[in-house]
Description:
Elements: E1 2-6, H1 12-21, E2 25-29, H2 37-40, E3 45-46, H3 50-55, E4 59-62, H4 67-74, E5 87-90, H5 96-108, E6 112-115, E7 118-119, H6 122-127, E8 131-135, H7 138-148, E9 156-159, H8 163-192, H9 196-203, H10 211-222, H11 232-248, H12 254-268, H13 279-283
Parallel strand pairs: 1-2, 1-4, 2-3, 4-5, 5-6, 8-9
Antiparallel strand pairs: 7-8
Helix pairs in contact: 8-10, 8-11, 8-12, 11-12
Amino acid sequence: xxxxxxxxxxxxxxxxxxxxxxxxxxxxxxxxxxxxxxxxxxxxxxxxxxxxxxxxxxxxxxxxxxxxxxxxxxxxxxxxxxxxxxxxxxxxxxxxxxxxxxxxxxxxxxxxxxxxxxxxxxxxxxxxxxxxxxxxxxxxxxxxxxxxxxxxxxxxxxxxxxxxxxxxxxxxxxxxxxxxxxxxxxxxxxxxxxxxxxxxxxxxxxxxxxxxxxxxxxxxxxxxxxxxxxxxxxxxxxxxxxxxxxxxxxxxxxxxxxxxxxxxxxxxxxxxxxxxxxxxxxxxxxxx
Length: 288
């Protein structure tokens, strides 16, 4: 089938490649056209405008930075796309309330809307091994589950729109908490002169170990945060979304606010576009 994908950045580009490799006709659009250009050689059609892109296909996948970007594209001041009979599939990370509001507005335009945020990064996209969480109705699930298997082998229907968005924020909060906690423990080990391998020998077989620790350890030891799969600025955005949702639910968020402060200081160091493990630079400054 013909599918439109809007947002061809770190995750969107390999997602478009997956769709093309699965035999779909793909129309792409990116606000920075140069990011979409490499997909043309693989067979994708580059739409001249977002409105053209949406109207070209029965399904439009959004993989953009935030809900504001989606709203600017779907509901521009002029030249709004005709949503009648078209489905918007939101696959980025936005707040539950934002997703519910978008669904309501799309349906007013006689279109359809569901969410399917994903857990994983570029390697998982390319392997088709993302964890796909779906927020929508049973009929929507039945209609789109086979397509979603292009990105992950076992998509999961979480509940109505908003539930999958909330689950994704809960998982991304763990990303922030894990990297902050591991950075602090590793930093103390290094400052005390304890052998890192001894630390890992105790940690690895324990219930405290997490796969992320092993994955990020080389970056922390080398202080190399280039070629990110998930930039620091994006993690800060998601932490802020989680904090807003958690405070609305009357949860105590002091611990996460401390981590947000670390992320904000990391951005102040000019590391916003680096891998989120660059938080280590704030926890363990080089010259102190």
